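PROTEIN FOLDING TASK:
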Amino acid sequence: MLVWRLDDRRGTLPVHAVERVLPAMAVQAVAAAPVKLMGIVRLQGRALPVVDLRRHLAEPARELRPSDRLVLLKNGPWRFGLFVDTVEDVLIANGPGAPPALDVDGLYSEDDQRRLAALGVQT
């Protein structure tokens, strides 16, 4: 499990869903995109949707900082990213005392992909 922090909140992501962790980068807003998306980032010439984790977790919004990290995830056929304040650790198991796991299934879906495609965003 990948342990992340967002303000005072800690959580984990299944390491099998994590492709890599990158430094913060500029996000391009997409007009009329689903509200849960911050926008897209361009990686290797492709658009990658970025989920607004702060909105998803009902945390206060804030500007991205250079110290933030972009976690790239793959869930089934969907690739997307989300920003966290820091990545703290990798745990072998999510045992007692470990931060709660974030359900990646609910973060980005086929419906979100279709809505972006309808807006002309090819991911």
Summary: Residues 2-118 form a domain with the OB fold (Dihydrolipoamide Acetyltransferase, E2P) fold (CATH 2.40.50.180).
